[in-house]
Design goal:
With 598 residues, this protein is of the alpha/beta class. It has 16 helices and 32 strands.
């Protein structure tokens, strides 16, 4: 078939359109206007956008009267970890399509930390024939560069063959920003790999892209980071951080996830000059928030209700800007030759789409995706049985109590303190209560014991510390989702419940659990790499809701999502104090630090 001829003849009304949408208020990303228009599609693309009524007599296979409702380009999530939803890729895309998201740029470093290249291959294969276009950024930091035990390492030579893979847009978030600033050889190899691939041209708008991740980096160090070719950053949590990145030519990915909520705080950085350099992303968002609140459409709704950013700028930030940043030709606009990715919205401005099209095919209607793509039988079998605690931690099949023993040295300890709605932490020095020569959790002051079990079967190490600010009052919570090496993390107010939570996840092959008084209150099984489920979204949602309710019973601080926040307490590339299986990490000093104060 001659596609060009088909497109031309459809635009002129001489060939039957696949779809004709009449009388829509189409958002034009190029001029910022909402124009009364008819839209024709052919070959999965937009063939023509004509004045309302002009296509009334044109032949069309499907004809819809939009009745002056808004027709908006499909939203694009510029940076997301699919694994954090706890859904397999097919189910994740099914949920997003119903919310008007037609394109995502995913960083699969979670699964690659656990499964290596096999995890990347799985993600690419699982996102074929789904109702969302999924692009990938190759994980640049496997492992993240923090002192911890990782299951896999991806070097520059490991990544090189993947650069030619269809759908790969570049290198994902460079979390090892110290490695960039201090010119670490292995990091430079990855930066130069991308530079060489781009024929000596590197930066945010030349060839493949390079995403950043540099919380609180400023001044000369930020300039050095940008000089390495870093084109974006999604870790800005303060207005000054955002403005400094924009002034440095770094695209500002504004994040509204389940734990990290930066959207409203960064609104003052958006104006007529900077809006074109701003993108929207979710980064990490679990299934409950995706279903009940939404994805990028939720961020759009919040910005519209906030009222400080003009709607045309919001809608460009939600799609077109990301398409331009990643050099996605013919994506992000309702215009001739562009992919027919768009959604129809009513006048209530809830930003819950009535109908969604992906490459010209109706994929969702009234909040429901119209089909459920599934992978081939056995496709995900290699991802199972990834939780392997060392046998040295057990005695007669039961975890030893000594695993959680913290000696009382009569000294204060460095306590990790959670900051609500952020994944960064701060430090407090606290003299903890002791019993029989061992330090204990302190429910009265809201300080839980925290432990990270190496779960890749390599060492049997357990890192121990204390955590404040989660609101936990009793029991224990545990998770095999623990960024970024995904060892098993557990917090609790007593050792018995903590050990029970760990054992329950070991038996389940991964997941998240809430325990109290010797009972498993709720368990969310995540058997695929210990990160996500292969069950339908509806089942995972029900299990996640039950787990969240159990976590609420144990106590919760306002502004803190317990399980998602817990999963970031081992991410030792986010300041300032975190815990890995190797022990307490002072992120500001880029190394391990003693639990006890001098």
């Amino acid at each position: 078939m001659d596609i060009a001829k088909t497109m031309i003849e459809t635009a002129k009304g001489n060939a039957e359109a696949e779809l004709c949408i009449l009388n829509a208020k189409v958002f034009n990303v190029f001029t910022g206007e909402f124009l009364a228009s008819d839209v024709l599609t052919a070959c999965g693309r937009v063939a023509a956008v004509l004045p309302a009524g002009a296509a009334r007599e044109y032949p069309a296979r499907v004809r819809i009267n939009a009745e002056e409702k808004l027709l908006v380009p499909g939203f694009i999530d510029s940076h997301v970890h699919i694994e954090s939803s706890h859904l397999c890729p097919e189910e994740f895309c099914r949920v997003l399509a119903a919310r008007g998201v037609t394109t995502v740029v995913a960083d699969p470093h979670e699964i690659c930390n656990v499964m290596g290249p096999a995890g990347l291959r799985y993600m690419i294969e699982a996102t074929q024939d789904v109702p969302v276009t999924v692009f990938f950024m190759l994980p640049s930091c496997v492992p993240a560069g923090a002192p911890e035990t990782a299951a896999h390492t991806l070097s520059a030579s490991d990544l090189a063959p993947w650069l030619d893979e269809p759908g790969v847009l570049g290198l994902g978030e460079m979390m090892n920003y110290p490695g960039v600033v201090f010119t670490q050889e292995s990091v430079l190899a990855k930066l130069n790999l991308l530079r060489e691939y781009n024929d000596g041209k590197f930066g945010p708008l030349s060839g493949l892209s390079l995403d950043g991740h540099a919380p609180f980096l400023t001044g000369a160090d930020l300039q050095a980071y940008a000089a390495a070719g870093i084109g974006s950053d999604h870790e800005s949590s303060t207005l000054e951080e955002a403005r400094e990145r924009l002034r440095s030519g770094i695209a500002l990915m504004i994040r509204e996830g389940s734990s990290a909520k930066n959207l409203i705080d960064l609104v003052p950085a958006i104006d007529g000059h900077t809006a074109r350099q701003c993108l929207l992303c979710t980064d990490d968002r679990h299934v409950v928030d995706l279903v009940y609140e939404g994805s990028i459409n939720f961020a759009v709704r919040k910005l519209v209700r906030d009222g400080r950013v003009p709607l045309p700028d919001i809608l460009r930030m939600a799609g077109y800007n990301a398409a331009r940043h990643f050099n996605l030709r013919h994506t992000g606009a309702v215009a001739p030759a562009y992919f027919a990715d768009f959604a129809l919205y009513g006048d209530d401005r809830t930003w819950e789409p009535e109908m969604v099209w992906h490459k010209g095919r109706l994929v969702a209607e009234k909040g429901r995706t119209l089909d459920t793509p599934r992978t081939k039988t056995g496709h995900n079998e290699p991802l199972r049985n990834s939780v392997r605690l060392s046998g040295r931690l057990f005695e007669n099949g039961v975890l030893k109590k000594e695993c959680l023993a913290v000696e009382d040295k009569g000294l204060p300890v460095k306590v990790i303190v959670v900051i609500p709605e952020q994944i960064a932490t701060r430090r407090e020095d606290v003299l903890m209560p002791a019993e029989n020569g061992l330090l204990q959790a302190d429910p009265d002051r809201g300080i839980a014991k925290l432990a990270v079990f190496e779960r890749h079967g390599m060492s049997g190490r357990v890192g121990l510390g204390f955590l404040k600010g989660m609101g936990l009052k009793k029991g224990a919570l545990a998770s095999t989702v623990a960024h970024d090496s995904h060892n098993l993390i557990v917090m609790g107010m007593n050792d018995a419940d903590m050990l029970l939570a760990v054992e329950s996840l070991h038996r389940a092959g991964g997941g998240q659990a809430a325990c109290l008084d010797g009972e498993v209150l709720a368990l969310l099984p995540l058997p695929l790499a210990g990160l996500f489920s292969d069950a339908p979204a509806e089942q995972v949602l029900a299990e996640q809701v039950q787990l969240n309710r159990a976590a609420e019973l144990l106590g919760r601080e306002k502004g803190v999502e317990p399980l998602m926040t817990l999963s970031f307490m081992s991410l030792a590339v986010i300041p300032s104090l975190k815990l890995t299986d190797l022990g307490l990490v002072d992120v500001d000093e880029f190394g391990l630090t003693d639990l006890y104060c001098e």
